[in-house]
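Researcher: Please generate the 3D structure of the following complex. Treat every line as part of one assembly.
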Amino acid sequence: MGLVQLVTVVFIDTVMTDNAKAQIYENLAVGGNVFVELMSRRARQLAQMTHVLSMDFAFKNAIATSDHETIISVLENLKNRINAHVVMLISLERSVTANTMHTESINDTIQMAAALTEAERHGEASAIVTMDGKTYQITIVPLLAPDPIAWLCTGFEVDNRLLSELKKLILADVTIINMSNTVRKPIVASTLPLHASDTLLKSLLGVNAKEADTFEVNYKNEIYVSAKTTLYKADGQTIVTVLQRSLNDVLKPFYKLRKILYSFFILTLLLSILVSFRMARTVTRPVSTLVEGVREIAKGIYNHRVEIAQKDEIGELAEAFNVMSIGLEEKELVSDLLGKVISAPIAHELLKKGVALGGEQRQVTILFADIRDFTTISENRPPKQILTLLNMYITKMSAIIERYGGVIDKYIGDAIMALYGAPISSPDDADRALNSALDMVEALTGLNIEIEPMGFAPLNIGIGINTDIVLAGNMGSKSRLNYTVIGDGVNVASRLETLTKTAEFNTKIIVSSSTLDKSSGQYLTRPLGHVAVKGKSDKVTIYALDGHTIPAALPPAPQGNQGRY
Amino acid sequence: MRQNNYFITLTVITFSILCMFASHCYGANLNAFIADDQGAPVEFAVVTATATSSTINSKKPADVIIDQVDKEFITYVTAIQAGTTVMFPNNDKIRHHIYSFSEVKKFEIPLYPPGVNADNKVLFDKPGVVVIGCNIHDWMKAYIYVVETPYFATSDSKGNILINDLPDGQYDVAVWHPNLAPKTPPQTMKVSVGDKNEGHIKFTLRLTQQWRSRRAPIFQGNALYR
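Model: Done. Output below.
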């Protein structure tokens, strides 16, 4: 905006200056013509005056006396009558027989051949001649008696006074310059101060100005636009008129306008800078801060906040952004925490379906694992060591359970309760539970090697697995709840785990028939008979799980094993 | 008022002299035709015939009148024999003031009233050109051509000149016109007349326009610088 304005101002400046110059040149050209015309008219007036003088009979009479002193005296008289500066009598043979400037001499010659020729042709002539270092506008008329007997010549000096009178008419400074090389003082007259006219002369004598009719003169840091007009050219001398006007004078009104324009320009420039700053502060910067904030959020950095203290729409937006990021951060925190506290699939399910009390009947395979005689193991050991041991154990076991898609329902001391089929069921829930158990038993060997340097005796675990329809869902109060399963099937699984350590069975994994029935059956099992479980009217058929069958070599396990009973 | 140049060429183109007989013949006429270089007839040219053998009868020439009518001299060119008295009657209703600054005869008759004015007479005793003017009417101008010989005549508007009763003999015939420049040398030709045969001669003159003030009361100059 500022640039456009600057360009406009500079453009206007240039155009105005050029315009002013063009106007001056035009005026000067007109002025030059007017000046020449004025001089021409003056010459005609002078010629008329001279002509009237020439008609004086007494004057003719005096001429007829041929007495030089009388004639000079008469010429002086005529000179005074018209306030001329010089009067001359020139013979028909072109010699000056009487001259009021040179009263003693006769037969002077003056360089006015061209003017005399003109007079001979037209009966009247005017010229500009230099005599004794002064320049005169002269007019020549014949002295008729009644035929021509001589030429009467009157001269009027071209001086500063004359030019200052003409200056009033043409409204420009006038300088008359004799361009002839022979003249000692080229400046004939001028309305300019002496130094200025000297400067003008130097410019005029410059190569360019000699040819051009218009040129510029720089005098005292002011530009004078000048125009040259030839005033008189004859008898080997050229006299030019140079009209001048100060560019500043013409531009004065414009300078005022320009001052206003520039002030306006600077004002608006400052204003626009101010507005830009304000815009940057209130719009651009906050917006980029917000964009930066959104990018941070996109990267997952929810604790990012924007600080924009503005009470406008952008301020509101920033506030909303901060509220949003706080919300996001909290949600992330909850989600993170949920993942740690509860199993990831449950957390996911909860987030998806919403946290609400209530449950559903579904078939779930429940796995209970427990370290045998953990109390004995932990005896006389610092709690910290025990916790370390427990964490190592649980970490290892949980990893296996999760690898098989099992959901850790809860840890109860050294016991682990895991679910397969809740909250999401799949056809191989039973297999995944069985495989988990086998892997857990195998993994224990590795763990025992790891804990041996710590001075712990090898751990033994018992695992019970049962499949049943149970109630799964969020249980507890509105303010605090748990996703879990309840039902007889859970108790059965717990009971089966307990059975592993009985002297009767003393095995690592006990599985109920309901689980085996739902598995692929490719396991090595031993039927352990039927056991009564508290709260269940029917006895539960249980098996010991020892390992995998070699696929293709062995027949499907469950039926076969069952058949042994 | 104009005066273009001083060159006046006087050329004799043709002449015929038919008078081949006895020189004692008496009363012959000399005819002359004056034309300019364009062939146009020239008025106010004066032709003089001066006998080579001086057998001049010295009878006193008669008075001549140069009238002033309607602020003009009548006539513009008057040729007279030296010794002639010229009368200047005034036939206008206003006064005139005639003068001459010519070397041949300087005179002045200050403002005189209309009428015959018996005193307004001037004797021209020397040959030459006298230009007369009126002090109060700048344009009034007339020439008096004073000659020695009694044999002369002025051309009419058709350029014809007739000199009557010219005694037989040899003559130097010359022509003059006010528009001839003073510096132009007089051109003459020798002519024999006699036995009542008429001489026929022709002069061709190159003339320039003569200076003359205008009758217009306001003087109009020419443009001077352009």
